[in-house]
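Researcher: Here's my situation. A collaborator sent me these components and asked whether they could plausibly form a single complex. I don't have experimental data yet, so a predicted model of the whole assembly would be a useful starting point for our discussion.
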Amino acid sequence: MVDKKVHIQTFGCQMNVSDSEKIVAALRQVGYSPTDTIDGADMVILNTCSVRAKAEERIYGILHTMKGELKRNPRLLIGVGGCVAQQEGERLLKKVPHLSFVFGTHNLHLIPQMVLAAEDGKRIAETDFIDNETRLDLFPVLGGTGGVSRFVTIMQGCDNFCSYCIVPYVRGREISRRPAEILEEVRMAADSGVREVTLLGQNVNSYGLKVGDGPNFAALLRQVAAVPGIERIRFMTSHPKDISKPLIDCFADQEKICSHIHLPVQAGSDRVLQIMNRGYTRSDYLRKVESLRAARPDICFTSDIIVGFPGETEADFRDTLSLMEEVGYSDTYTFIFSPRPETKAASLEDKTTRAEKQARLDEVIALQRKLTGNLHRALVGSRLQVLVEGVGRHEGQIYGRTSGNRIVNFTGPVEMIGSFADVLVVKDAPNSMLGEMG
Ligand code: SAH
Ligand code: SF4
Ligand code: F3S
């Protein structure tokens, strides 16, 4: 078979990064191998995100610039997958006449046949959801690709319908992958040298709840922890309402589970949380934080926060700031509310001006900078184990990640990349720390 080249651009969350691996595997079946540049590519695929309007607009911008690429190479095929593809379907082919094919989030297995049709000049969109058991057969067990750290998908979709969020509409119903396949993938990863796995899903805490007889998330974690070779376990994303006592117990007695949890709170005011349909109150959330901290005193919390949700008052916003202080997050990802198609919140009255929203965003970012700074300062003088991930910014430096998900730069040999190191934290910095080996 002739070797053809595909250039894949991935946007959005880790779910899309994982899907891009599957897209690469599907494309190999029809003779394509990946290339980092668009120059010399026979096909371009955009794996898209539509969580906020900006993410979606960006895709249209890139598709527009592809016209220039097509002038240079008229045979170039352009495909769009991911959440914008799922949202728009056929419409996308109409909006973008130079687009060859569109595949939805449940249709990765159809890529080979779609590409063959596109090579024959056909324009196709496949975006049907497969919201039944057969979808479980569409999770190939992926072998190791080298590296020390790996993501393993344990579930897909989301049934929570937070009122602002498009994910349930573009990813479909929540489905938990079979435990035997997850464990096989973890074992294969461990055998190939992986030491850290991150279990991935929109909503990992509700793993297994909808299938009945399989393990729940806490039980799955224990099974993953028992796989020889795996030394660190992370997971993403946790929904606060589903943090259970058995999961909290895992933090107390399973050392391999890292001292970090991404626990998006979104807002600090009960009124806003309710309109967001989050399913917990501020005090429910804080109680869970307290229990997790009791189980694992050095645990680091990170969060997602939305500012400028429709009707968010200054007082509501102050509640978000005070909650951030109370938890003492090590990091937050902050977003200005963006109305999304089909979602309930898109039709709510929204009187806050863009400038006010921007000011709130700036305030959250400034507060987080202070909180991160405090945490890093408090860690100066402590000895931490890091998993070394790469070369640092300064000459001779490498960097590693602590169990709490903080970065430490230190002088050391590049040969250490992929192994554990003990470092003494000697200095704090706004986004990382400086350490010394030994
Ligand atoms: N449970 C998910 C969340 C996905 S979206 C997960 O697996 O990570 C990531 C974050 O984007 C959300 O936590 C939320 O803070 C933000 N977000 C989602 N929809 C948004 C919207 N319409 N406007 C602004 N931010 C949004
Ligand atoms: Fe979106 Fe809420 Fe589901 Fe997360 S839990 S993906 S924020 S609907
Ligand atoms: Fe974006 Fe889709 Fe992920 S909307 S955040 S790529 S699930």
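Model: Some features of this prediction you could bring to your collaborator: The mean pLDDT is 95. The CA atoms of residues 218 and 247 lie 5 Å apart.
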